[in-house]
Amino acid sequence: MSIDSLKSRIPDFAKDVRLNLSALASDETLTPQQKYGLIVACGIASRNKEVRTAMELEAAPHLTPAALAAAKAAATIMGMNNVYYRFTHLVSNDEYRTLPAKLRMNVIGNPGVDKVDFELWALAVSAINGCGACMDSHEAVARKANLSVEAIQAAVRFAAIIQSAAIALEAAEAA
Fold first, then answer.
1. Which domain holds residue 151?
2. Active site residue ranges
3. pTM exceeds 0.85 for this model
4. What are the boundaries of the signal sequence (predicted)?
5. CATH code for the domain in which residue 29 is found
6. Distances from the Cα of 150 to the Cα of 28, 116, 120, 124, 139, angstroms
7. Are 75 and 44 in contact (CB under 8 A)?
8. pLDDT given for residue 1 in this prediction
9. Tens of pLDDT along 30-59?
10. How many domains does the chain have?
11. Which stretches in the chain have pLDDT values below 70?
12. How far apart are the first and last CA of the chain?
């Protein structure tokens, strides 16, 4: 299932989601690797099997095996980090922020692709998972690497669109 076949499954009450999904492939704000890595990482982060499969099938022809693995790694590592750092950010007791995380996250330092692309994917997944501390951290690294505000905004827009597709499918199933 590709994005086109996924769009056919989006119910009429979510026609804006279909339109937004159509715009993903034609977006020219990002490099192809950034764009298709986002599609994979956000598809995984949506936690919806149908969306994940469609996004991976759409992106696979456009990514090297290393980039595909890195996009999957971004979704995975941020799944862990977003839980931990969201907790330390939101809990009232500041003592937790002073403790070492003791989490292995070597892939962030050596993702196997351009570091700024990985940071962009990690930022988008963090937006889906709602971790403000991680969003701040990855946005700062992306900006320091001279990634434009428009590219960063596009990454979060991709995350929003892909997440909304998962929500629309789940709402249709519940009806």
1. 3-98+105-174
2. 131, 134
3. yes
4. none
5. 1.20.1290.10
6. 11, 14, 12, 13, 12
7. yes
8. 60
9. 999 999 999 999 999 999 999 999 999 999
10. 1
11. 1
12. 23
